[in-house]
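Summary for the steering committee. The consortium agreed at its last meeting that each partner would contribute one worked example illustrating the joint modelling workflow. Our contribution is presented below. We chose a case with several input lines so that the handling of multiple components could be demonstrated. No manual editing was applied between input and output; the record is shown as generated.
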Amino acid sequence: MKTFNVALVGVTGAVGKEMLSILEERNFPVEKLIPLASARSRGKTVVFRDKKIPIQVLGEAHFSGIDIVLMSAGAGVSREYAPQAAEAGCLVIDNSSAFRLEEDIPLVVPEINPQAVYRDRVRNIIANPNCTTIISVLPLKPLHDHAQVTRVIAASYQAVSGAGAQAMRDLENQVCNYVEKKEPITQNSSHPFAFNLIPRIDKVLDNLYTREEMKLVWETRKILGDDSIRVTATCVRVPVFRSHSVAMTVETQHPVSRDTALKLFKGFPGLTVEDDPLNDIYPMPLYASGQDSCFVGRIREDISAPNSIHMWVVGDQLRKGAALNAVQIAELVAAEAQ
Amino acid sequence: MKTFNVALVGVTGAVGKEMLSILEERNFPVEKLIPLASARSRGKTVVFRDKKIPIQVLGEAHFSGIDIVLMSAGAGVSREYAPQAAEAGCLVIDNSSAFRLEEDIPLVVPEINPQAVYRDRVRNIIANPNCTTIISVLPLKPLHDHAQVTRVIAASYQAVSGAGAQAMRDLENQVCNYVEKKEPITQNSSHPFAFNLIPRIDKVLDNLYTREEMKLVWETRKILGDDSIRVTATCVRVPVFRSHSVAMTVETQHPVSRDTALKLFKGFPGLTVEDDPLNDIYPMPLYASGQDSCFVGRIREDISAPNSIHMWVVGDQLRKGAALNAVQIAELVAAEAQ
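What follows is the complete predicted structure of the assembly.
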């Protein structure tokens, strides 16, 4: 079996850490692991397969001899280093938004468009989609194949993990301060996360949508390969640690009954149906955290319009929303090379 | 000035307590306050205008001589006691869902349909709408008057106060247990509130909507006096103490620009516009709590459909969502009697 030298850029971040453990968990054929981070992590180590490996500083290390680079250190870092790594012959799987919408860069959810990994690869960079998009697009795919999705209205309930490891510590600290009757400290957001909702994620654009909302619009179309799908979203940060939830209204060309939707979702990889609200069974972020599957429930026909269906989707932002999806892309690449 | 003997049923609950302080705050012309609660509160007192008043036990006390009864002790209690009180000559303002949809019972948001207080009153019971409905319907009213609302798609982010005072203590305890690394205790819900989202509020109905969701459908139509408005909703409990938030998509017969919506909202009583997302100004439940106004922001034209507009509305569930609205109804009744 062919093995691979794998570099992990941003290994100390929330997603980077998760990538490290998922590579080990899924027994990815790693020959040599090269952990990379900023100069702040100089001298630190990570543990992989019970071995301590020193972190190398990005910009000082060479990409030569590396087969696959998993990159999760923000769009700025990706814009600078992904092309360098690709030129050195690495295959880059990039978790940032830097390249996602470029025409000659594949944007891949392995359960949906695995073929894009092979078909569209000219620049040796594959983009990992936005976390909320990955979680939302999974149930959209079988609906789209069956009945042609025409419009999606999404309201997201996004965990603080999406704002990074420091934001998760912020929520933790804010909650501790609350218990100790101290003022909440906000270090990594304009407003406190704890006991609050922040209806702005990422930059505000000219059309007054946030970038996070427009990512859902743009990336959903690209992943499903259909620019005719109209998508709109309101993205909101909620005081949950690491699973995103999305309330979705999906309008289709042809009618989809609840029973058909249930059947479609049950037959789709990466999705688990939890839909027995009478018995309090529905997807919840507290329980989705740490799991690989995305969970779909509260499936019901929309009483306000024909050919419209509601669902509630929940997935671990750090796993399927980011690290797991990236490693799954690496697995496709590895399988291709065997 | 005419003064009134006012009874408060459910005075120890989250809404009852708020009613008590709002009556005092707004200087409602109370002649005598009669606090009523279940036998569990026997021997307890409440403080009103710096005076301790003993709580009377509901079912043992008489309604004769009482002018106005504010009732907030659940639909079962209302069904039993509201007709008794009305028959004894009291005007009942009922916060439960017991009578809201009955044809000869007014369902009133004073900023929207104050005339219903006089026009439809035959049974001496006025119903206070559901909390999420009150908060959602405020911005709908000026949109409806201006451009005829045809369809509303709502996703709610509802505070635990909506589940009562004990649920608020549950969230508090769960958060303390988290900090102390203990298991969360769930006493008043099937699942923990803390760091979680529960996409079910109230009973599940045959169409697989929850009662809470259908309240929004039914009550919005009744308050706006237009059964042609199609409404759909997904209602979700979030770990926030006492303000509800709603992401709304509102489709209208005639186009409404963002500028027009801003103007309409700014001119509408009970609404405050907070809409400068670039500068991190948008409604948030942490700051809306304790306030009388409902806050609207993230106003933008929906890119997925013509004649559709998005907004994000936040209001204190215990104040405008319940106690304040009920006292405002009492104020209309009091003004009528002057």
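The mean pLDDT of chain B is 96. Chain B touches chain A through 57 residues (CB under 8 Å).
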